[in-house]
Please model this.
Amino acid sequence: MLEEDKALESAGLAYTDCYHEQLQRDAQFLCSDQRMDTELVDRLVLQLNRIYPQILSDKEAHRFRNLTIPTKVRLAELLKHLRGKGEEACHEFYRGLHIHAEDVYSSLPTRVREREMADAKWNNNVAVHPERFVLNDRGPMFFLSCFSFVVGIAMLYYYGEGETLRCTGPFLHCSAARLSKGAKDVLITYAEVGRQKK
Model:
């Protein structure tokens, strides 16, 4: 990795390289990767030659497909040739690599770094408010005990006899005032049915 890359990464700055610079950084990885075999290099050369003859002429394609030269040497020469042709040639090489060998393309050092930087940025955005949706920190037992208390009071009022339990009426009406319309109707209905029974 170049010194300027280390400085940018340590500063936490995201940057996008042009394809020419990316190919320069990925060249060593591509030449050493075992998946870049003769067949794959030939497919890439043929695609560049047939679809983009301005990037790779027939004569150049024949030179890069010469089987008497080792594949790694041909690949290194091809990458050097593409960098000399400019940005568009490098871009088309990456497109061809993505089409013919997606596993190699996704494991390129520049792609791995982009994913890591994108993941780090996404994780930082997600981790900003980790407890945003927590209503309270008292746990489920607190909720169950409050709910049980309210149900107990409602049961006492509904099934209770005599005037001693009439003190629960104002409590139920007060509780119903803070609930939604449907829940308020249910509690008031229970209160009215309890009064009619007595």
